[in-house]
Design brief:
Blueprint lengths: L10 H8 L26 E15 L2 E20 L4 E12 L11 E12 L6 E13 L6 H14 L2 E10 L3 E11 L8 H14 L4 E6 L11 H18 L10 E6 L2 E18 L14 E15 L5 E9 L10 E7 L2 E7 L3
Amino acid sequence: MRVLANLAWGVSWLTVVLMSCGVASPIGVDTRQQGEKPQHDPLAASNTFHYRMAGRVRLLLFWVSKENVGGGQITFSDRMLPAENLKAEGIEVLFGSNPGQVPGGVNRWGYGQEWAYWRLSPNASAAELQYTVFTGFMRHSGEEALSQVYASREHEQSAQLFWYDGIESTVRPEESVSEIRHFSEPQEIDYQQYAMVESAYRQRRDAGPPDKTEAFKNETRIYSAPYGFLTGLREVTRQIARQFQGNPAEFLKGRYSASYAYNAKTYVLEVTRLKHLPSFFLADVKPDGKERTNSSRQVSDVAEADFRLKNQTDGSKHDFSLWFPLRGDLQGVPLRILDKPRWWLQVELRLDHQ
């Protein structure tokens, strides 16, 4: 059925808003002064985790599902900057649909990276967040209905002009500033070829001023720390893990939240439901989307958390769910991400166990 072509659509929302990350060639730690160009940082230590994607489309009174419609990566990086007495923590996201696996060849994807800069105390026992910088780009996607998705794809193919939106969002204690740039490529590119679009975005950024600039003055301290979304989400999962490790009998009763800024707008991220799973199974999956026999890995003490994002300006809300370990070598790493970017579409990402 043709509607299955859109099972992977909505991934671009996960990339720009859920942005909870990974590519082999990071943009790098942003230690530049205003006006300077970002530099690559190949020395940053990192861990990359690969994901596979499934989707569900609602047809009247029932849902239609399809496995293996795309995938992506999440990378966590860090580096010490002793000259500035800073610790830099990076999160990168690259998620998208696989046109070769999705009926109709629909191609939606995006990339994002956020670096957080922490000032270390003299005894290195505590750190204070100084600022965060988020950089990303995604396939332009303003459609709200299935028919618009098809019309947009046909128009791009006939014009041989494929549009992208790029953003750089910087959050400091006193203000949040964002720069938006639009650019295009003359050929269809999927998320596995993202480096070509990254190069085009760099050229657009170096060529001149942004198409749009937004700023928010944090005069009344609407956000208490300069979190971007990814850093705020990471901090909330750390809060949950610390509470579980310190007092496992009480951690489910805690209230976990963080305020953050993105694109010069302020939000509150809060946990609306929290459940403790004593065990969670990761299954290796073959290219056809089917699980391999006897290939599951068991992960102990996993949190199943429902999150809500609330825009503090207009009150709009968005819900999503994460599953992540509360201890061990995978602590805080998403094992499963579940989002519903449209009322008729549900997207699921699962850590690919190898």
